[in-house]
């Protein structure tokens, strides 16, 4: 019987790891993200922190400006590998990962509106807690999130369980009695 429980426990851990990994690989980079780039065996081409510019780009030795905007870390990795193969390295082994996600913003009827660091798995109720909680005039029925969707910004109605993404702007409206 205990062996069956251990198996269930490991199966649950594997499922959680796979779902986190799938989410992380689908993350699209943008302005304000901080990434790390590592080229195995090439310390001059390894950077612990590179902040993407307002245009979502960064400068890399030998290559110049690299457009990372709206690309996954894996796509940026593939781009760097191809560019480095073109006359610089024989078989470059590159890894790209997100060090710090861009901020999300919260405005309206919260005690401390402003920008806050994104954390994977962040929900609206946790974002409100980061902003000091709701004011006494806040409406829990009139909340929206403005997010980038296919190049345009769209407002969506939100509730306390809505997932927050990096770069989102949350607005908590005033409630009317």
Features:
177 residues, alpha+beta, wza like fold, Outer membrane lipoprotein wza fold like, 2 domains, 3-stranded antiparallel beta sheet, Poly_export, signal, Polysaccharide export protein, polysaccharide transmembrane transporter activity, Soluble_ligand-bd
Give a description of the structure.
- This protein is an alpha+beta fold.
- The chain folds into two domains: 67 residues, wza like domain (wza like fold); 71 residues, Outer membrane lipoprotein wza domain like (Outer membrane lipoprotein wza fold like).
- 25% of the residues lie in helices and 33% in strands.
- The chain is built from three helices and ten strands; from the N terminus they run αββββαβββαβββ.
- The strands form three sheets. Strands 7-6-10-8-9 form a five-stranded mixed beta sheet, covered by helices on one side. The protein has a three-stranded antiparallel beta sheet with strand order 2-1-5, with helices on one face. A two-stranded antiparallel ribbon has the order 3-4.
- A hairpin with a 2-residue loop joins β8 and β9.
Give the SSE layout.
Layout: H1 2-26, E1 34-39, E2 47-51, E3 57-60, E4 64-67, H2 73-85, E5 94-100, E6 104-108, E7 114-116, H3 124-130, E8 138-149, E9 152-158, E10 169-174
Parallel strand pairs: 6-10
Antiparallel strand pairs: 1-2, 1-5, 3-4, 6-7, 8-9, 8-10
| The CATH topology of the largest domain | Outer membrane lipoprotein wza fold like
Compute the number of strand runs: 10
Helical residue percent?
25-40%
What is the CATH domain class of the largest domain?
Answer: Alpha Beta
Structural class: alpha+beta
Number of domains: 2
How many strands, what sense, and barrel or not for the largest sheet? 5 strands, mixed
Low-confidence stretches: 11-25
Strand order of the largest sheet: 7-6-10-8-9
Corresponding CATH superfamily of the largest domain: Outer membrane lipoprotein wza domain like
Q: Give, in order, the helices and strands.
A: HEEEEHEEEHEEE
Shape call: elongated
Quickly give the CATH architecture of the largest domain.
Roll
Q: Gyration radius, to the nearest Å?
A: 20 Å
Protein name: Polysaccharide export protein
Domain Polysaccharide export protein N-terminal: 22-98
Organism: Stutzerimonas nitrititolerans
InterPro entries: Poly_export, Poly_export_N, Soluble_ligand-bd
């Amino acid at each position: 019987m205990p062996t069956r429980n251990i198996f269930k426990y490991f199966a649950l851990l594997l499922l959680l790891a796979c779902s986190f990994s799938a989410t992380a690989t689908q993350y699209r980079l943008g302005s304000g993200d901080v990434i790390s780039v590592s080229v195995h065996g090439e310390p001059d081409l390894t950077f612990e922190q590179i902040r993407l510019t307002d245009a979502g780009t960064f400068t890399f030795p030998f290559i110049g400006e690299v457009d990372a905007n709206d690309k996954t870390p894996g796509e940026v990795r593939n781009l760097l590998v191809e560019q480095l193969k073109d006359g610089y390295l024989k078989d470059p082994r590159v890894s790209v990962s997100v060090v710090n996600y861009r901020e999300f913003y919260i405005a309206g009827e919260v005690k401390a509106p402003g920008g806050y660091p994104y954390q994977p798995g962040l929900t609206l109720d946790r974002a409100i807690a980061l902003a000091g909680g709701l004011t006494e005039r806040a409406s829990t029925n009139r909340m929206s999130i403005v997010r980038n969707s296919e190049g345009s910004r769209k407002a969506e109605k939100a509730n306390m369980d809505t997932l927050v993404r990096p770069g989102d702007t949350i607005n908590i409206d005033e409630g009317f009695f």
